[in-house]
Structure formats: C-alpha cells, structure tokens
Write a structure and sequence with these properties.
- This protein has 386 residues and is of the alpha/beta class.
- Helices cover 46% and strands 10% of the residues.
- It is built from 14 helices and 8 strands.
- The protein has helices at residues 40-43, 46-53, 71-83, 95-108, 117-120, 185-203, 211-233, 238-250, 265-277, 281-295, 301-312, 319-336, 351-363, 375-383, and strands at residues 11-14, 32-35, 59-62, 88-93, 133-137, 149-154, 159-164, 172-175.
- A 6-stranded parallel beta sheet has the order 1-8-5-4-2-3, sandwiched between helices. A two-stranded antiparallel sheet has the order 6-7.
- β6 (149-154) and β7 (159-164) form a beta hairpin.
- α11 crosses α12 (319-336) and α13 runs antiparallel to α14.
Length: 386
Amino acid sequence: MYNFKFKNPVKILFGKGQIAKIAEELPTDKKILLTYGGGSIFKNGVYDQVKAATKGLDIIEFGGIEPNPHYETLMKAIELVKAEKVGYLLSVGGGSVLDGTKFIAASALYEGNEPWDICAKRSQVSITKAVPIGSVITLPATGSEMNGNAVINRVETQEKLAFDSPAVMPQFSVLDPEVIFSLPERQVANGIVDAFIHVVEQYLTFPVNSPLQDRFAEGILHTLVEEGPKVLANRNDYEAAANFMWSATMALNGLIGMGVPQDWATHMIGHELTAYHGIDHARTLAIVLPGIMHIRRKDKQDKLLQYGERIWNITEGTVDERIDQTIAKTIAFFESVGIKTTLPDYEVPAETITRIANRFEQRGFKLGEKADIGPKEIQLILEDRI
C-alpha cells in the first residue's frame, strides 16, 4: 500500500429529521446565500424544512443551477455573492447544485482574472480560500457532500472540466434518506450507477497489497447491488434508502482511495459525452466503463478477476472467459436498473468518437492509473461501445 495523507473535516448529520438542526451549524453573523436547482425542493418539502430551520437568519436565494452546472449560470451567482457581501453558502439539492456552489465559493475569492481557469488550468491554479459551505443533499450519487471535488460545464465551449480543493469541502452536510422517497426512477438509477463507478475507479486498477481498502470498496459495491434495486422497487423503504445514501457518500469521501492507485479515465471520457451531447453523467459512465474493462483487460487483469470473483461470483473458465463474464455481469447490472450502456442507445454519432480523441490529443495529457491511455486508446474504448 502506498504512503498517504488523509483528512476529512466534513461533519455529517445523518438520518430523518436532521434538516431541522442546520441552524446549529450556520453562522448568525453572516449573510447566507441559499443555492438550489430547478425547483424540486419546493415539491418535496425540503425547501419548507430548510426555511423553517433557518428562520431569523439573513438569507438570500439563488436558484436554477442546472444538472451538470453551467459556468454561465454560476457566474451570475458569483456576482450576487460579491454584491451582497455573502459570507456563507448553503447548498440544497443534489451533487450538481453542490458542485456549482463549490465553484461559486472558490471563484468569489479568486484573485485571477478568469474564474474558468480554476478548471481549465487546474494544475496551475491553487485554491487556498473559499466562502464557507454547508449542504443539504437531496440526491445520493456524487459524494460531493463529503469531498472537495466539483465538475463544471461550460456551454459556450462544450467543455466539462473538474477542479478540487480542500478549501471547498463543506463544513457540514445533511443526509436525510427520506428525501429519496420523492425521487423519480431516473435519478435513483443514475445515483446507483454513479456511486458504483466511483468505487470502481478507485478499485479496478492493479494490486498494491491493500486488502482493507479492497474490502471497503467491495463492501460498498455489494451494498449498492443489494440495496439499489430495493430503493427502485419501493421508494418508501427507509432502511434501503439509508443504506444507499451512505454508500454513495462513502464511495467518494476519500477513504477507499487512500494508499491505492486510482483510474478516473471513465469519468474523464464520460465528461466529454456530456459536454457534446448532454447525456446524464451516470449514463456516460455506464457507456464508457465496459469499454475500459475490455480494452484494458491485460493491464487490469488481476483486479478484474478479483472483482469478478468477489462481486459476481465468477470463478470458472479461462482468464479471458472470466473477464468477459465479469464485463457482461456489470453491463447486466446497469441495465437492470434502467441504464443503457452503448453509444447507439443515446444516438451518439460515430464522429463524436474522433472529436473526443482529438480533444485529448490537443490537451496533451493521458488518462488512467498508469497515465498511458491516450487518444488512440480512447478511440478504441469508445469504438467498443458502438
């Protein structure tokens, strides 16, 4: 296992009724900006709960943050933060709202001329300060509630890029499983697959003698396979919702990735499918991952066999047969929760494959746990999904 440093300062308030306690976590001497998305919090009662819990505090609002939050929209919020001298941000919504709020928090105190550089020049820009954030999560999926990561979409240039900084980790996050009761099937399915592949990106690499990390990861995968379908079958199953919600958080709070190699090629390629065609994030991951598993089978062989045996009970056949079965089982699971896994399923034209490969050629960096996935490999991975 590799050397590592690990610190996660996010305070979690987990369980039913926890939204009522957020006033205990919020400052009383600062103006607070409440951020949210398209309005689902008004339909499911979360907005009313938040307003009741924060009565008496100095709060203004900014809504309309999109799934795959748009840079153009967030810039309007940044102007509001500066004009109103906002001193705290409260994100109420899913991971996209929180990702957007993190960008607002970082950009409001950014001293450079172009906030987009936070994402576009990620390796050159260090974010050391940000407006403090609290969050109320309404959709388990991204794990954004317990990490310093965010992904932003710039519509003008058809780019979807990430940034990360400890400075934008929430000070607290509320996880109330009851918010899942009103979620549509599409969002639940997306959340299951998103969380599942977050784990896979940190697990399906190569062995470094990290049995505890492997078992943590496998435990989350098993829980998602077992509990995800229960949530889809009965949205009011509180115990299943709670197990699903905590799994999504644990999938990307940093713990399972400590001391092990990480991949993230599936995410980086998937982001391009969203940027060009607006496909839901989780669905882009479900498209790309099987191609990664197939094309990179030799490099990932040991962990693919372990994953197949421990998650899908695949123990018989040649190495290639076992890997083929493992890929098939993974695809079957995604499709069992309603997520299609090929490019034609989303009417993505063949020329998009070349556009994506060319974009990585222009950026000049390579992907994967060994940084050896370049434009040619990306082309093969995507062609595998036709």
